[in-house]
Amino acid sequence: MAMPSKYRERLQTMGNGQLVVTLDMSDPCLLIYPLTEWEDIERKLIRLPSLNKQAVRLKRLLLGHAAECDIDSHGRILLPPTLRALTNLDKHIVLVGQGNKFEIWDEKAWNEQRDKWLGETTTDQELSDGLESLSL
Q1: pLDDT tens digit string along 87-125?
Q2: Residue 49 falls within a domain, yes or no?
């Protein structure tokens, strides 16, 4: 996978081009973090209680599938085959920026999920307290 050139320089300065790729817990996609961002998340995950089943599952999936990757001189990232298989990444992928991370989706899965989300936004749904205070 090639990282768009507009992000390469920033990723080089943030983490010397070092990235961490792992599974997303809620959607069939991969998460890509600059190494410095991932280190903060990793510390938080490690502190989660080991007797809480959800916390253990979260740690197993996120930490257990985390793989360090580098951006090569052509802006490419070699994604581990296991992670590609778990998220059905094939030839056509979509890179979605999320502020401190990127998501990598199979194009067909992204289009289906995006269309589902767009359909849900047209219905009246109650927002959580945290979202109600958000102003866009």
Answers
A1: 999 889 999 999 889 999 999 999 999 999 898 865 556
A2: yes
Domain that includes residue 109, residue range: 5-123
For residue range 41-94, list pLDDT tens digits in order. 999 999 999 999 999 999 999 999 999 998 888 888 999 999 999 999 988 999
- pTM for the whole thing? 0.84
Q: Residue ranges of the alpha helices (H) in 1-136?
A: 5-15, 35-46, 53-62, 81-86, 107-121, 129-132
Query: Is the residue at 103 inside a domain?
Result: yes
Number of domains in the chain: 1
Residues 106, 117: Cα–Cα separation, whole Å: 16
In a domain, 134, yes or no: no
4's CB contacts (< 8 A; 6+ apart) are 75, 95
62 part of a folded domain: yes
